[in-house]
Design goal:
Distance between the termini of chain B: 21 Å
Low-confidence stretches of chain B: 9-15
Distance between the termini of chain A: 42 Å
Strand content of chain A: under 5%
Oligomer: heterodimer
Order of helices and strands of chain A: HHHHH
Helix content of chain A: over 70%
Helix content of chain B: over 70%
Mean pLDDT of chain A: 71
Number of helices of chain A: 5
Radius of gyration of chain B: 18 Å
Largest sheet of chain B: 2 strands, antiparallel
Number of domains of chain A: 1
Low-confidence stretches of chain A: 1-14
Shape of chain A: flat
Largest interface: A-B, 61 and 66 residues
Number of strands of chain A: 0
Chain lengths: ~130, ~270
């Protein structure tokens, strides 16, 4: 990679971490895509409830929108739940990316940006985990 | 059908979100909340997909991105609150307005950043600077108008959470025009940022049941496929003729959404 944007050391450590992060992201993206595709195929095979009426909004069933429900359904290889799991993973990818930056800043003892990354991470986790809204 | 939408979305360079919601709601009569959920998924796919596909993303400045994302992510959370409280027709109307604005913006030439900007106190303190390699060698740059830029990002975030779009265009404008960050850096950083903002919105959308697997699956796979292929075509298609046609098309769709929103067809 040609460029490094860390002003502390224009050198190795930050570059390595950015390459690692990118590899991780690539892996996760492929994983998410695979899971979603697998879910799609499975739901076609089993034809559970694929032809749905999208014209009216009635909220998705609990099993498809809570973490607990998604994991449970995915374990039993229900196609739709598997897709949701893949989507969940897709949502997690930017979160993991920010987490990776946080760790990288902590290791570089860059306290200011550690706090910044932590703030963003906190907001993201709040969105994903807080059910109260 | 959603595969095509996703593919097209990642090729238009607007991040796809802005195209998918109108496409699904107007062409297929899908309820707007489901469309918003699928659209946000597409934004996630665009951001992470291009991050995974590109060999080098050397232009993105992650410090600027993370710092501005504080505003955008908070905005996104607020946006999701708003969208839950107002009527779908109003959401559609707002969407239409944003589309019109996008149409106006995309009919203009991409702006040039100021590469001779002098850092101010805040940007030095936060180290919001960097350099990149261009044909002319290493170019240094920095950011200005930080608070204004921060505010713009907050608005971009609210729109993202409210409408299920990526707001990539607004973020690029904020960084490029207002903060005087070079265009290439702005677009690359924006791609990084929209993924984070979308993740914040999507977490809430998921809990509210806006994200439907059957609808989201083809969109997601279509966008990922598109970002593998489309990124290469993208930079070559920017002739002013195509841009104008595109702007007109988006404008018309914007009007239609406003009309239908007000007529209570949502």
């Amino acid at each position: 990679m040609a460029n490094d944007f860390s002003e502390r050391k224009p050198g190795r450590p930050a570059q390595k971490s950015e390459t690692l992060i990118r590899r991780l992201v690539r892996f996760l993206v492929m994983g998410a895509a695979f899971i979603v595709a697998a879910g799609g195929v499975l739901s076609f095979i089993r034809t559970s409830a694929v032809s749905q009426d999208y014209h009216f909004f009635k909220s998705e069933p609990i099993s498809l929108r809570s973490l607990h429900g998604i994991l449970g359904g995915a374990a039993s290889l229900d196609g739709l739940n598997l897709i949701q799991l893949g989507i969940l993973l897709l949502i997690a990818i930017p979160i993991i990316r920010v987490l990776a930056f946080l760790i990288s800043y902590l290791l570089q003892r860059d306290w200011m940006y550690s706090v910044i990354a932590l703030t963003v991470l906190g907001l993201l986790l709040f969105s994903l985990l807080a059910n109260g809204i | 059908m959603s595969l095509v939408a996703g593919f097209l979305g990642s090729m238009t360079g607007l991040g796809g979100g802005i195209v998918i919601v109108p496409f699904l709601t107007l062409a297929f009569g899908v309820d707007i909340h489901y469309a918003m959920g699928a659209s946000l998924v597409s934004v996630l796919a665009t951001s992470s997909g291009s991050a995974a596909a590109h060999a080098k993303s050397g232009f993105a400045n992650f410090r600027i991105g993370l710092f501005l994302e504080i505003a955008a992510t908070a905005g996104a959370l607020a946006g999701t609150l708003i969208t839950a409280m107002i009527s779908p027709g109003l959401v559609a109307g707002i969407f239409g307005l944003v589309l019109l604005h996008s149409a106006y913006m995309s009919s203009m030439r991409p702006p040039a950043g100021d590469e001779n900007a002098v850092p101010n106190r805040i940007s030095s303190f936060l180290r919001l600077n960097g350099e990149y390699h261009s044909d002319r060698g290493a170019q240094r740059y920095t950011a200005r108008s930080i608070s204004f830029g921060f505010a713009v990002m907050a608005i971009a975030g609210v729109l993202s959470g409210l409408l299920g779009i990526g707001s990539g265009a607004l973020k690029v404008v904020g960084m490029d025009r207002i903060m005087k960050i070079p265009f290439k850096v702005s677009t690359a950083t924006s791609n990084f940022m929209i993924g984070i903002t979308a993740a914040a919105g999507a977490g809430v959308y998921l809990h509210k049941g806006y994200i439907d697997p059957g609808l989201s699956m083809p969109v997601m796979l279509g966008v990922l496929a598109g970002s593998l292929v489309g990124a290469r075509f993208l930079t070559k298609v920017k002739t002013s003729g195509a841009r104008l046609i595109f702007a007109i098309a988006i404008g018309l769709i914007g009007f239609e959404m406003i009309y239908k929103g007000m007529a209570g067809k949502f």
